[in-house]
Amino acid sequence: MLRVGVIGCGGMGRSHIDRITNRTQGAQVVAVSDVFEEGAKKGAEIAGEGCKVYTDSKQLINDPDVDAIVIVSPGFAHCEDLLEAIKVGKRVFCEKPLCTTADDCKKVMDAEAASGKHLIQLGFMRRYHKGYIQIKDAIKTGEYGDPLIMHCTHRNPEVPESYNTPMAVHDTVIHEIDLCHWMVDDDYESVQVIMPKQTRYIHKNCKDPQIMIMRTKSGITIDVECFVNCLFGYDINCEVVCEKAALKMGTPIAPFIKKDATLSTEVSTDCFVLFKEAYDEEIQNWIDCAAKGVIEGPNTWDGYLAAVTADALVKAQESGQIEPVNTVEKPDFYK
Amino acid sequence: MLRVGVIGCGGMGRSHIDRITNRTQGAQVVAVSDVFEEGAKKGAEIAGEGCKVYTDSKQLINDPDVDAIVIVSPGFAHCEDLLEAIKVGKRVFCEKPLCTTADDCKKVMDAEAASGKHLIQLGFMRRYHKGYIQIKDAIKTGEYGDPLIMHCTHRNPEVPESYNTPMAVHDTVIHEIDLCHWMVDDDYESVQVIMPKQTRYIHKNCKDPQIMIMRTKSGITIDVECFVNCLFGYDINCEVVCEKAALKMGTPIAPFIKKDATLSTEVSTDCFVLFKEAYDEEIQNWIDCAAKGVIEGPNTWDGYLAAVTADALVKAQESGQIEPVNTVEKPDFYK
Amino acid sequence: MLRVGVIGCGGMGRSHIDRITNRTQGAQVVAVSDVFEEGAKKGAEIAGEGCKVYTDSKQLINDPDVDAIVIVSPGFAHCEDLLEAIKVGKRVFCEKPLCTTADDCKKVMDAEAASGKHLIQLGFMRRYHKGYIQIKDAIKTGEYGDPLIMHCTHRNPEVPESYNTPMAVHDTVIHEIDLCHWMVDDDYESVQVIMPKQTRYIHKNCKDPQIMIMRTKSGITIDVECFVNCLFGYDINCEVVCEKAALKMGTPIAPFIKKDATLSTEVSTDCFVLFKEAYDEEIQNWIDCAAKGVIEGPNTWDGYLAAVTADALVKAQESGQIEPVNTVEKPDFYK
Amino acid sequence: MLRVGVIGCGGMGRSHIDRITNRTQGAQVVAVSDVFEEGAKKGAEIAGEGCKVYTDSKQLINDPDVDAIVIVSPGFAHCEDLLEAIKVGKRVFCEKPLCTTADDCKKVMDAEAASGKHLIQLGFMRRYHKGYIQIKDAIKTGEYGDPLIMHCTHRNPEVPESYNTPMAVHDTVIHEIDLCHWMVDDDYESVQVIMPKQTRYIHKNCKDPQIMIMRTKSGITIDVECFVNCLFGYDINCEVVCEKAALKMGTPIAPFIKKDATLSTEVSTDCFVLFKEAYDEEIQNWIDCAAKGVIEGPNTWDGYLAAVTADALVKAQESGQIEPVNTVEKPDFYK
């Protein structure tokens, strides 16, 4: 039984505590931490009897009863805790982003590489969604030739006033940033953002829709329509165009209804419905791997690459130009 | 140029006059007839200058300027005109039914066979619908094995008060009666009608929905859900289950719209939209054949078989039993 | 933690032991039993340390360390164990069939009713398949009017030589028997079986395909195409025709591939793939309910009704007639 | 009856002669012209008795028996004939391109505007394809908000060795150039071409695939995946993303086949199949309009705009930059 400590007891933190406690196998939450003691106590309640409560994440990390750590604190707090966890050699599941700056990401990556052990998995849960896995598996068969182009949409019914233009990168397309390079097993070289005609239904602080274009080192070109106030649904699509075939991700099971001169089926409006199983699979996989002392999911390099690519996209949002993705060379440790 | 005379200038008659005049090639309407002179004149107007007007269909049939005849008069009037046309050896396109009784159908069939020439084509336009043709062609390849079962639906948004239970056979499933035996190239042996729970939205004179089951001589079993007050659309489906595959008829081109949390596409509510092209193709094919002195479409045997099968279905509506389809043996002339 | 005893350690028994041990929450297998000690030991191994091994199911049922019982023994052995479990008042999950004869089913039903407690859940796992639940939920909204007709297919790629005609009822359509009456909340009144033209790819002992028709007390008519040697896939479909709408079950997520002039998507060939999640949900729900001292899943009445309906279908396979489903009146205890 | 003269009797010319003669209403081909007399004679044969044969297109244009003209000669020959036709005030259907240079297009446009009569229709037949019309009609309802983005694919199974990179613009995406600005009723402002990873199945002279991006004056952004050696089919798609909905073009009727563990439907490999009806509709509409002395289809401005946009795209293929579409201001005459 893997003994897990959870840092950060906000909504997502409590969700992960509940997941580990009630929906996955092989782990239990033995300690939680939050800078707000009240929050930490609420988290501990979900975990059940005997769960320790910390307000200092360092103490949790160093608790000898804690085998592995889940970090769900705000992004700016990740770097320090990740470095501490690396120091004590414990496996970590860290919600995205890895860190809030590319420099910090690199610092963590260097520390992990220096430690000689793969310790950190990033919370890019979409890699565990059946639809993407089916496509990746299909590509891997080689039957369809090399992938050349990916067309994606990331549509969302609406966003609050607080959502601004760069968040389209950091909070929304960040998923495609990770997913797409993973699906075709390649890293990014350059990006571009096109601002089409804007919907009148978005508030002033946010450009919407946006078309983000990412090019991998081998030239695979990924276009992502990011439309966060599309009103009609949470509509995620992915089509990979290969040399001999086009592969389109399937849609989840839902009834087809003929009524009122219309054949219709539901489009989800809730990302937690679409990716519900993926969240569980992600944590289950991390638990299984951590128990075996390995990491199979998105790793520190992926987190670093996502950070650098996101920075380039934000720059491209303003410049309107093709912007390079300037990463260090991929360390052998991550190859 | 085939010179056509049209008998019957009601709605359907005028529609065929317009079709021959304006939408098909190789024929022109040179004479029309209707027991109501006013009606005949309206028909002639559509045909344009020089079109003769009759109130006596026999005169039209015998007019030496008329090469071929379209009969769109009420069903009870068909028999006499068909016999007359056979006598003078002119090609006929006759709207369904061939005649209103199986006996009359047989009389016409015998007369045609005796004449030694295939003269009559019945107005089962669905044989000219692309969707059915594609399925029939697929079956004919042999690639899918023999057809064993057909599942059909014939759904209609609503019917008037005047529509009664036997009309579900004579006006509605009559299309599947002809179509299904043609698609699998077999004749009927027995039928059954099941009355499921009834919709509360139908008026008193009509049972709705009904499930009609038709069995061919080789045992192919066809079930037709006939639901004429289904409210939601004119929804025609056909799936043929073969030994190695199931073949489902495609649907016409229509946009897919994502809006309000729903992905939807239109279900037609109008049979004339769905079969618009089929009506044109049917008449064009008859014109082409008549000009060559042949008949390729549904013939007199098909009309006779439909009449006998319909009678058996009406009997089965009342008896609840499996009823035989008692036809004479198929004359060699129609094999 | 619910302490579970499992009776029967064949393939399905071991699968349930693994499920309870590794894929569901809140229960552990503390005892197993099999008439073959070797089999029981294999089962115990999956459950892990401390699991007791019995060869006499009665001892397992009476073991005070066992809170609840899973019966996965051959059908003929169910009756006695069920009666024993009722005697000691323990909750049971029993794989179908409840018993092999309607009389035995009734004996168990009477005993349970006399005990005053709902103790037994039957293994009709399809009720836990998302697709069916979505349709049942849609019906329950009332938005579509009353259900009138259900069209189902139960297609299977192929069956072994040992599979015979009655097994099309007992092993195959038994699922639809339970599922369909549950979806529309009604019991059966009569049944019919139609034997269409037979596929040449089936062996001699089995009629295939068959069309089974079941009529509920309110007249809802269910047709099931049972085609167990269809070659092309495990193809389960369900369409419910209501007064205002037709509801068709969705299909599982799978990629759409355009290649070689074809747009295609996979049809499963394995029932355990299609219903994998359903098996887990079924057992999880039973564990949760057993822990609370209730039964929510298919109950003893459902098992009895299925047995009587299956008997009528087997009779109908031979008679070709509409056969009544002669159940006792539904006891108040099960309403 | 509109008396039509056809200039150019190559494959496409003969196809139009056949169309006017045998598949459309209200016109007949009374004269044909080709620089090769043999070709002209072949064309005349299709038109039937009495059709005049010219080798000088000017004579045909000036023939008083010719009411209207169809130009299907090579592109370089269009300009002179168009100017001549304008001079004599006859209606013209001109296959694309209008002229081979933007300057020539402008010359023709100026001449037509000066003549004060709309005389010329361009052969962009896709505007007559039902699928596009349905989408355009849907947009026009206003129900879905303003269009913001269009995603298109223009995939083709394979191209000959003679097909080179600029032809992806001039022969392939030229259709989307016309179609997309028409669908959203806007003109182009700038374009860009992205060269993704290249398929190894294309020959050396052609870059494939390409992503072409066109921006309208109001900012609507159109991306077209042009993949002319995709191997799998002639696969045309169009999705218009509006403020409240995404509208995807429907696909033509085709059977759905379940066989060998796969559900599949055909992807056409032949553009003449997909757009067969559109070619007929296009010519029929031109005949109807010419007879009434109007032009409803793609006009001279559309031809000029297409030429300028195509030039910008070819430039963008080489520069990799966003290139402006420098048209003159739209003359009032074309508004």
What's the CATH class label of the largest domain in chain A? Answer: Alpha Beta
Net shape of chain A: globular
Computed over alpha carbons, the radius of gyration of chain A is: 20 Å
How many β-strands of chain A, per DSSP? 15
CATH topology of the largest domain in chain A: Dihydrodipicolinate Reductase, domain 2
User: What about the largest sheet of chain A?
Assistant: 7 strands, mixed
CATH architecture annotation name of the largest domain in chain A: 2-Layer Sandwich
Number of helical segments with 4 or more residues of chain A:
10
For the largest beta sheet of chain A, what order do the strands appear in spatially? 12-11-7-10-9-8-15
Provide the low-confidence segments of chain A as ranges. none
Distance between the ends of chain A: 30 Å
- Strand portion of chain A: 15-25%
Q: Which quaternary structure do these chains form?
A: homotetramer
Task: Find the biggest chain interface.
Answer: A-D, 36 and 36 residues
Compute the average pLDDT of chain A: 97
**What is the SS-derived class of chain A?**
alpha/beta
The count of domains of chain A is: 2
Keyphrases for this structure?
335 residues, alpha/beta, Rossmann fold, Dihydrodipicolinate Reductase, domain 2, 2 domains, seven-stranded mixed sheet, six-stranded parallel sheet
Protein model, in words:
Four copies of one chain form a homotetramer. Chain A is an alpha/beta fold and 335 residues long. The first copy, chain A, folds into two domains: 2-126 and 279-299, Rossmann fold (3-Layer(aba) Sandwich); 135-265 and 305-334, Dihydrodipicolinate Reductase, domain 2 (2-Layer Sandwich). The first copy, chain A, has ten helices and 15 strands. Chain A has helices at residues 11-23, 37-47, 57-62, 78-88, 102-115, 130-140, 167-184, 271-274, 276-292, 300-319, and strands at 2-7, 27-33, 52-54, 68-71, 91-94, 120-122, 147-155, 188-194, 210-216, 221-227, 235-242, 246-248, 256-259, 262-266, 323-324. Chain A has a seven-stranded mixed sheet, covered by helices on one side. Chain A has a six-stranded parallel sheet with strand order 3-2-1-4-5-6, sandwiched between helices. In chain A, strands 13-14 form a two-stranded antiparallel ribbon. In chain A, β13 (256-259) and β14 form a beta hairpin. In chain A, α5 (102-115) packs antiparallel against α10 (300-319). The mean pLDDT of chain A is 97. The B-C interface holds B 145-149, 151, 155, 194-201, 209, 211, 213, 215-216, 218-221, 223, 225, 227, 230-232, 235, 241, 243-246 and C 145-149, 151, 155, 194-201, 209, 211, 213, 215-216, 218-221, 223, 225, 227, 230-232, 235, 241, 243-246. β14 (262-266) of chain A pairs antiparallel with β14 (262-266) of chain B.
